[in-house]
Specification:
420 residues, OB fold (Dihydrolipoamide Acetyltransferase, E2P), 23% helix, globular
Protein backbone atom coordinates (compact mmCIF):
# COMPACT_ATOMS: atom_id res chain seq x y z
CA UNK A 1 0.00 0.00 0.00
CA UNK A 2 1.42 3.35 -1.05
CA UNK A 3 -0.70 6.49 -0.98
CA UNK A 4 2.06 8.92 -1.99
CA UNK A 5 0.53 11.71 -4.06
CA UNK A 6 -3.06 10.75 -3.24
CA UNK A 7 -5.50 13.33 -1.84
CA UNK A 8 -8.53 12.83 0.39
CA UNK A 9 -10.68 14.54 3.01
CA UNK A 10 -9.74 13.88 6.62
CA UNK A 11 -10.86 15.13 10.03
CA UNK A 12 -7.92 16.07 12.23
CA UNK A 13 -7.55 15.05 15.85
CA UNK A 14 -4.97 15.77 18.54
CA UNK A 15 -1.54 17.25 17.83
CA UNK A 16 1.42 14.89 17.64
CA UNK A 17 5.02 15.54 18.60
CA UNK A 18 6.63 16.96 15.49
CA UNK A 19 4.32 19.70 14.23
CA UNK A 20 1.39 17.72 12.86
CA UNK A 21 -2.13 16.66 13.77
CA UNK A 22 -3.20 13.03 13.79
CA UNK A 23 -6.05 11.76 11.62
CA UNK A 24 -7.28 8.43 10.30
CA UNK A 25 -8.19 7.44 6.77
CA UNK A 26 -9.36 3.98 5.78
CA UNK A 27 -7.96 2.55 9.00
CA UNK A 28 -4.49 4.09 8.70
CA UNK A 29 -2.97 6.86 10.79
CA UNK A 30 -2.09 10.01 8.87
CA UNK A 31 0.24 12.70 10.26
CA UNK A 32 -1.01 15.93 8.70
CA UNK A 33 0.95 19.19 8.75
CA UNK A 34 -0.53 22.68 8.34
CA UNK A 35 -3.85 21.76 9.98
CA UNK A 36 -5.34 22.25 13.44
CA UNK A 37 -7.29 19.92 15.73
CA UNK A 38 -10.92 19.52 14.72
CA UNK A 39 -10.47 20.82 11.18
CA UNK A 40 -11.74 19.04 8.10
CA UNK A 41 -9.08 19.34 5.40
CA UNK A 42 -8.12 17.98 2.05
CA UNK A 43 -4.74 16.35 2.54
CA UNK A 44 -2.17 15.22 0.00
CA UNK A 45 0.15 12.40 1.05
CA UNK A 46 3.79 13.48 0.87
CA UNK A 47 5.48 10.36 2.26
CA UNK A 48 4.33 6.76 2.58
CA UNK A 49 6.70 3.95 3.45
CA UNK A 50 3.96 1.37 3.63
CA UNK A 51 3.74 1.04 7.41
CA UNK A 52 0.99 1.86 9.86
CA UNK A 53 1.14 5.58 9.11
CA UNK A 54 1.90 8.06 6.36
CA UNK A 55 2.60 11.79 6.20
CA UNK A 56 0.54 14.44 4.45
CA UNK A 57 0.06 18.17 3.98
CA UNK A 58 -3.27 19.94 4.45
CA UNK A 59 -3.61 21.61 1.06
CA UNK A 60 -7.16 22.91 1.52
CA UNK A 61 -9.10 23.75 4.68
CA UNK A 62 -12.75 22.74 4.32
CA UNK A 63 -13.86 23.46 7.88
CA UNK A 64 -11.53 25.85 9.72
CA UNK A 65 -10.74 25.96 13.42
CA UNK A 66 -11.58 29.24 15.20
CA UNK A 67 -7.88 29.31 16.15
CA UNK A 68 -6.77 29.56 12.53
CA UNK A 69 -5.22 32.81 11.27
CA UNK A 70 -3.59 33.69 7.94
CA UNK A 71 -0.18 32.00 7.97
CA UNK A 72 2.56 34.38 9.08
CA UNK A 73 5.29 32.44 7.27
CA UNK A 74 5.19 32.41 3.45
CA UNK A 75 7.98 29.82 3.25
CA UNK A 76 6.66 26.92 5.29
CA UNK A 77 3.28 26.04 3.76
CA UNK A 78 2.48 22.75 2.00
CA UNK A 79 5.56 21.55 0.14
CA UNK A 80 7.65 24.29 1.76
CA UNK A 81 10.23 24.62 4.50
CA UNK A 82 10.09 23.07 7.95
CA UNK A 83 10.61 26.34 9.82
CA UNK A 84 7.15 27.41 11.01
CA UNK A 85 4.84 24.47 11.72
CA UNK A 86 2.19 26.54 13.52
CA UNK A 87 2.32 29.99 11.93
CA UNK A 88 -1.33 29.48 10.88
CA UNK A 89 -2.54 29.43 14.52
CA UNK A 90 -2.89 32.12 17.17
CA UNK A 91 -0.10 32.25 19.76
CA UNK A 92 -2.54 31.04 22.42
CA UNK A 93 -3.51 28.08 20.25
CA UNK A 94 0.14 27.27 19.52
CA UNK A 95 0.86 27.10 23.24
CA UNK A 96 -2.20 24.96 23.85
CA UNK A 97 -0.93 22.50 21.24
CA UNK A 98 2.45 22.39 22.98
CA UNK A 99 0.77 21.82 26.35
CA UNK A 100 -0.99 18.79 24.85
CA UNK A 101 2.27 17.41 23.46
CA UNK A 102 4.30 17.88 26.67
CA UNK A 103 1.48 16.39 28.75
CA UNK A 104 1.13 13.39 26.44
CA UNK A 105 4.86 12.70 26.28
CA UNK A 106 5.22 12.80 30.07
CA UNK A 107 2.27 10.48 30.51
CA UNK A 108 3.25 8.01 27.80
CA UNK A 109 7.03 7.90 28.30
CA UNK A 110 7.48 8.75 31.99
CA UNK A 111 4.18 7.62 33.48
CA UNK A 112 3.52 11.07 34.95
CA UNK A 113 0.17 12.86 34.95
CA UNK A 114 1.10 16.53 35.19
CA UNK A 115 -0.58 19.74 34.15
CA UNK A 116 1.78 22.28 32.64
CA UNK A 117 1.61 25.80 31.28
CA UNK A 118 3.72 26.77 28.27
CA UNK A 119 4.96 30.22 29.21
CA UNK A 120 5.76 33.15 26.98
CA UNK A 121 9.36 34.36 27.04
CA UNK A 122 10.21 38.07 27.30
CA UNK A 123 10.55 39.93 23.99
CA UNK A 124 8.27 37.49 22.15
CA UNK A 125 5.86 40.15 20.91
CA UNK A 126 3.51 38.79 18.26
CA UNK A 127 5.67 35.68 17.77
CA UNK A 128 7.84 37.17 15.04
CA UNK A 129 11.29 38.74 15.20
CA UNK A 130 12.54 36.73 18.18
CA UNK A 131 15.31 34.56 16.67
CA UNK A 132 18.87 35.85 17.03
CA UNK A 133 20.62 32.79 15.53
CA UNK A 134 19.89 31.36 12.07
CA UNK A 135 21.73 28.70 10.05
CA UNK A 136 21.11 29.01 6.30
CA UNK A 137 21.95 26.66 3.46
CA UNK A 138 23.34 27.70 0.07
CA UNK A 139 22.02 26.11 -3.11
CA UNK A 140 23.92 25.12 -6.25
CA UNK A 141 23.46 28.59 -7.69
CA UNK A 142 24.99 30.31 -4.67
CA UNK A 143 21.68 31.54 -3.23
CA UNK A 144 21.04 31.42 0.51
CA UNK A 145 17.90 29.73 1.74
CA UNK A 146 16.31 27.16 4.02
CA UNK A 147 15.79 23.44 3.62
CA UNK A 148 12.54 22.03 2.39
CA UNK A 149 10.79 19.94 5.05
CA UNK A 150 12.42 16.47 5.37
CA UNK A 151 14.62 17.21 2.36
CA UNK A 152 18.06 18.47 1.38
CA UNK A 153 16.52 20.75 -1.24
CA UNK A 154 17.17 24.43 -0.60
CA UNK A 155 14.37 26.98 -0.91
CA UNK A 156 15.99 30.32 -1.75
CA UNK A 157 13.42 32.37 0.14
CA UNK A 158 14.38 34.26 3.31
CA UNK A 159 10.97 35.68 4.24
CA UNK A 160 10.55 33.53 7.36
CA UNK A 161 9.33 35.90 10.11
CA UNK A 162 11.36 34.37 12.96
CA UNK A 163 14.69 36.32 12.70
CA UNK A 164 15.12 39.62 14.51
CA UNK A 165 14.85 42.75 12.42
CA UNK A 166 17.78 43.29 10.07
CA UNK A 167 19.25 39.79 10.47
CA UNK A 168 18.64 38.85 6.81
CA UNK A 169 19.55 42.22 5.26
CA UNK A 170 21.33 41.90 1.88
CA UNK A 171 21.86 38.13 2.24
CA UNK A 172 19.39 37.21 -0.50
CA UNK A 173 21.03 39.67 -2.89
CA UNK A 174 24.53 38.23 -2.39
CA UNK A 175 26.24 35.23 -4.01
CA UNK A 176 27.72 32.59 -1.71
CA UNK A 177 29.78 29.45 -2.13
CA UNK A 178 27.50 26.66 -3.40
CA UNK A 179 26.98 24.00 -0.75
CA UNK A 180 28.23 26.23 2.07
CA UNK A 181 26.23 27.27 5.11
CA UNK A 182 25.77 30.69 6.62
CA UNK A 183 25.62 31.29 10.36
CA UNK A 184 23.79 34.53 11.08
CA UNK A 185 23.92 35.91 14.62
CA UNK A 186 22.67 39.18 16.04
CA UNK A 187 24.26 39.51 19.47
CA UNK A 188 23.15 41.25 22.64
CA UNK A 189 24.77 44.51 21.60
CA UNK A 190 22.86 44.51 18.29
CA UNK A 191 25.94 43.67 16.20
CA UNK A 192 25.25 41.35 13.26
CA UNK A 193 27.68 38.61 12.30
CA UNK A 194 27.51 36.48 9.15
CA UNK A 195 29.96 33.59 8.98
CA UNK A 196 30.43 31.33 5.95
CA UNK A 197 31.08 27.66 6.77
CA UNK A 198 32.68 25.56 4.04
CA UNK A 199 30.56 22.74 2.58
CA UNK A 200 30.34 19.73 4.87
CA UNK A 201 32.40 16.74 3.74
CA UNK A 202 29.94 13.85 3.68
CA UNK A 203 31.37 10.33 3.49
CA UNK A 204 30.84 8.21 0.39
CA UNK A 205 28.52 6.00 2.40
CA UNK A 206 26.48 9.01 3.44
CA UNK A 207 26.25 10.32 -0.13
CA UNK A 208 25.14 6.93 -1.42
CA UNK A 209 22.62 6.23 1.35
CA UNK A 210 19.09 7.47 1.48
CA UNK A 211 16.68 7.59 4.37
CA UNK A 212 17.78 7.60 8.00
CA UNK A 213 21.34 6.37 7.37
CA UNK A 214 22.09 9.07 4.85
CA UNK A 215 20.48 11.75 7.02
CA UNK A 216 22.60 10.70 10.00
CA UNK A 217 25.78 10.83 7.90
CA UNK A 218 24.94 14.31 6.60
CA UNK A 219 24.11 15.52 10.11
CA UNK A 220 27.40 14.15 11.45
CA UNK A 221 29.32 15.90 8.67
CA UNK A 222 27.53 19.19 9.33
CA UNK A 223 28.39 19.02 13.04
CA UNK A 224 32.12 18.45 12.55
CA UNK A 225 34.46 21.47 12.83
CA UNK A 226 34.72 23.23 9.48
CA UNK A 227 36.77 26.06 8.09
CA UNK A 228 34.83 29.30 8.16
CA UNK A 229 35.27 32.91 7.12
CA UNK A 230 33.61 36.01 8.53
CA UNK A 231 31.65 37.89 5.88
CA UNK A 232 29.93 40.50 8.07
CA UNK A 233 30.81 41.71 11.56
CA UNK A 234 33.68 40.47 13.69
CA UNK A 235 32.57 36.86 14.12
CA UNK A 236 32.77 37.38 17.91
CA UNK A 237 29.37 37.79 19.56
CA UNK A 238 28.85 39.57 22.88
CA UNK A 239 26.08 38.34 25.18
CA UNK A 240 25.15 39.37 28.71
CA UNK A 241 23.31 37.41 31.42
CA UNK A 242 22.85 38.65 35.00
CA UNK A 243 25.37 41.44 34.49
CA UNK A 244 28.15 39.18 33.17
CA UNK A 245 29.26 39.42 29.53
CA UNK A 246 30.57 36.60 27.36
CA UNK A 247 32.46 36.99 24.10
CA UNK A 248 32.02 33.87 22.00
CA UNK A 249 32.39 32.62 18.46
CA UNK A 250 29.34 33.60 16.43
CA UNK A 251 29.12 29.98 15.21
CA UNK A 252 29.04 28.67 18.78
CA UNK A 253 25.92 27.80 20.73
CA UNK A 254 23.76 30.46 22.32
CA UNK A 255 20.02 30.37 22.94
CA UNK A 256 18.17 31.41 19.79
CA UNK A 257 15.33 33.32 21.48
CA UNK A 258 16.54 36.70 22.67
CA UNK A 259 14.72 36.26 26.00
CA UNK A 260 15.75 32.68 26.72
CA UNK A 261 19.24 32.81 28.25
CA UNK A 262 18.32 35.14 31.12
CA UNK A 263 15.04 33.35 31.82
CA UNK A 264 16.60 29.89 31.96
CA UNK A 265 19.49 31.19 34.08
CA UNK A 266 17.02 32.60 36.62
CA UNK A 267 15.07 29.33 36.84
CA UNK A 268 18.26 27.30 37.23
CA UNK A 269 19.52 29.59 39.98
CA UNK A 270 16.21 29.36 41.85
CA UNK A 271 15.99 25.57 41.74
CA UNK A 272 19.69 24.78 42.13
CA UNK A 273 19.90 26.60 45.48
CA UNK A 274 23.46 25.36 46.04
CA UNK A 275 24.84 25.82 49.55
CA UNK A 276 27.96 27.89 50.29
CA UNK A 277 30.97 25.60 50.08
CA UNK A 278 29.09 22.89 48.18
CA UNK A 279 30.09 21.02 45.02
CA UNK A 280 27.91 21.58 41.93
CA UNK A 281 28.13 20.18 38.42
CA UNK A 282 27.18 21.88 35.15
CA UNK A 283 26.98 19.30 32.36
CA UNK A 284 26.88 20.25 28.66
CA UNK A 285 27.85 23.64 30.04
CA UNK A 286 28.53 25.62 26.87
CA UNK A 287 30.30 28.86 27.80
CA UNK A 288 29.25 28.52 31.44
CA UNK A 289 26.11 30.64 31.81
CA UNK A 290 24.67 28.28 34.43
CA UNK A 291 28.11 27.65 35.96
CA UNK A 292 28.37 31.37 36.72
CA UNK A 293 25.13 31.31 38.72
CA UNK A 294 26.21 28.17 40.56
CA UNK A 295 29.55 29.80 41.38
CA UNK A 296 27.77 32.72 43.00
CA UNK A 297 25.87 30.27 45.20
CA UNK A 298 28.72 27.97 46.30
CA UNK A 299 31.12 30.89 46.80
CA UNK A 300 34.93 30.79 46.96
CA UNK A 301 34.86 27.79 49.29
CA UNK A 302 32.84 25.64 46.90
CA UNK A 303 33.47 24.10 43.50
CA UNK A 304 31.62 24.08 40.19
CA UNK A 305 32.76 21.37 37.79
CA UNK A 306 31.61 22.02 34.23
CA UNK A 307 31.85 19.71 31.23
CA UNK A 308 31.45 20.75 27.59
CA UNK A 309 32.60 18.92 24.45
CA UNK A 310 33.18 22.07 22.34
CA UNK A 311 36.73 23.25 23.00
CA UNK A 312 36.00 26.76 21.75
CA UNK A 313 33.10 27.19 24.15
CA UNK A 314 35.30 26.10 27.07
CA UNK A 315 38.01 28.58 26.07
CA UNK A 316 35.48 31.42 25.76
CA UNK A 317 33.89 30.46 29.07
CA UNK A 318 37.24 30.39 30.86
CA UNK A 319 37.88 33.99 29.83
CA UNK A 320 34.42 35.17 30.88
CA UNK A 321 34.65 33.41 34.26
CA UNK A 322 38.31 34.16 35.01
CA UNK A 323 37.30 35.92 38.24
CA UNK A 324 35.59 32.76 39.53
CA UNK A 325 38.40 30.32 40.43
CA UNK A 326 35.84 27.92 41.95
CA UNK A 327 34.64 27.13 38.40
CA UNK A 328 36.58 24.33 36.68
CA UNK A 329 35.73 24.16 32.98
CA UNK A 330 36.77 21.01 31.14
CA UNK A 331 36.50 20.08 27.48
CA UNK A 332 35.25 16.49 27.30
CA UNK A 333 32.26 14.42 26.26
CA UNK A 334 29.94 14.13 29.25
CA UNK A 335 29.04 10.49 28.65
CA UNK A 336 32.71 9.51 28.68
CA UNK A 337 34.01 11.28 31.77
CA UNK A 338 31.08 12.17 34.04
CA UNK A 339 31.94 9.24 36.29
CA UNK A 340 35.44 10.65 36.82
CA UNK A 341 34.38 14.01 38.25
CA UNK A 342 35.67 14.63 41.75
CA UNK A 343 33.40 15.22 44.71
CA UNK A 344 29.79 14.20 45.20
CA UNK A 345 27.63 17.11 43.99
CA UNK A 346 24.86 18.66 46.01
CA UNK A 347 23.21 19.79 42.77
CA UNK A 348 23.64 18.98 39.08
CA UNK A 349 22.52 21.19 36.21
CA UNK A 350 22.32 19.31 32.93
CA UNK A 351 21.39 20.72 29.51
CA UNK A 352 21.93 17.85 27.05
CA UNK A 353 21.50 17.95 23.27
CA UNK A 354 18.12 17.35 21.65
CA UNK A 355 18.56 13.58 21.90
CA UNK A 356 18.66 13.81 25.70
CA UNK A 357 21.06 12.58 28.38
CA UNK A 358 20.34 8.88 28.03
CA UNK A 359 20.67 5.90 30.35
CA UNK A 360 24.47 5.87 31.00
CA UNK A 361 24.61 9.55 31.98
CA UNK A 362 21.50 9.39 34.17
CA UNK A 363 22.84 6.27 35.89
CA UNK A 364 26.19 7.97 36.54
CA UNK A 365 24.43 10.96 38.09
CA UNK A 366 22.19 8.82 40.27
CA UNK A 367 25.20 6.90 41.57
CA UNK A 368 26.62 10.16 42.95
CA UNK A 369 23.25 10.91 44.60
CA UNK A 370 22.88 14.69 44.20
CA UNK A 371 20.07 16.19 46.23
CA UNK A 372 18.75 18.10 43.23
CA UNK A 373 19.05 17.75 39.45
CA UNK A 374 17.95 20.62 37.23
CA UNK A 375 17.37 19.14 33.77
CA UNK A 376 16.81 21.30 30.67
CA UNK A 377 15.40 19.72 27.51
CA UNK A 378 14.51 21.22 24.13
CA UNK A 379 12.61 18.11 22.99
CA UNK A 380 9.61 16.94 25.04
CA UNK A 381 10.03 13.29 24.05
CA UNK A 382 13.70 13.01 25.03
CA UNK A 383 12.96 15.09 28.15
CA UNK A 384 10.23 12.64 29.16
CA UNK A 385 12.47 9.63 28.45
CA UNK A 386 15.17 11.10 30.69
CA UNK A 387 12.60 11.77 33.43
CA UNK A 388 11.58 8.11 33.23
CA UNK A 389 15.23 7.10 33.70
CA UNK A 390 15.57 9.35 36.74
CA UNK A 391 12.46 7.75 38.20
CA UNK A 392 14.08 4.33 37.90
CA UNK A 393 16.73 5.63 40.31
CA UNK A 394 14.28 7.05 42.81
CA UNK A 395 14.10 10.65 41.60
CA UNK A 396 10.77 12.38 41.02
CA UNK A 397 9.84 15.40 38.96
CA UNK A 398 9.06 17.85 41.75
CA UNK A 399 8.93 21.02 39.61
CA UNK A 400 8.29 21.60 35.92
CA UNK A 401 8.21 24.67 33.72
CA UNK A 402 7.82 24.84 29.95
CA UNK A 403 8.61 27.81 27.74
CA UNK A 404 7.49 28.82 24.27
CA UNK A 405 11.08 29.41 23.22
CA UNK A 406 10.36 28.82 19.53
CA UNK A 407 7.14 30.66 18.56
CA UNK A 408 5.47 29.63 15.28
CA UNK A 409 7.12 26.19 15.56
CA UNK A 410 6.25 22.95 17.36
CA UNK A 411 9.36 23.13 19.56
CA UNK A 412 9.12 23.76 23.29
CA UNK A 413 11.73 23.99 26.08
CA UNK A 414 11.16 22.13 29.35
CA UNK A 415 13.02 22.60 32.65
CA UNK A 416 12.50 20.11 35.43
CA UNK A 417 13.68 19.76 39.01
CA UNK A 418 14.35 16.15 40.04
CA UNK A 419 14.62 15.27 43.73
CA UNK A 420 14.56 12.17 45.92
Amino acid sequence: MNWAGESFEIRLGKPGHGGFCVGRHEGRVVFVRHGLPGELVRATVTEDRGGAFCRADAVEVLEASPDRVPALCPVSGPGGAGCCDFSHATLAAQRALKVDVVTEQLQRLAGIERSVEVEELPDTGDGTGWRTRVRLAVDRDGRAGVHRYRSNDVIADLRCPQPVSGAMADIAESQWEPGAELQVAVDGSGQRHVVVLEPAKVSRTGKASSGRRGAMARRAAANRPRHHEVAIGSGRAHETVSGRTWELDATGFWQAHRGAAQTYSDVVAQWAAASPGAVAWDLYSGVGVFAARLADQVGPGGAVRALESARGAVDDGAIALVDLPQVQLRSARVERVVGELAGDPEVVVIDPPRSGAGRPVVAALAERAPQRIVHIGCDPASFARDVALYREHGYELSELRAFDAFPLTHHVECIGLLTR
